[in-house]
Amino acid sequence: MEHTIFPPPDRARIKTTFMRMLQREHSTIMHRFPGARSAMLDLRPLKNFWGRWLPEERVIAISESL
Fold first, then answer.
1. What pTM, to 2 d.p., does this model score?
2. Nearest 5 degrees, angle CA 51-CA 33-CA 60?
């Protein structure tokens, strides 16, 4: 389900900004755990979860609708 609150160019800018913020926070957290393996963050069209860990891909998937 795609929301139409913002026009497409604004949605793209908002998603980019959101991902930068998430990646910055993830880096901050990872620095607290030396030796821990980092994961990729990815926005995905998840319908039943706000986010989930995908161990086979080492991805933290965040719902686009979040």
1. 0.70
2. 15
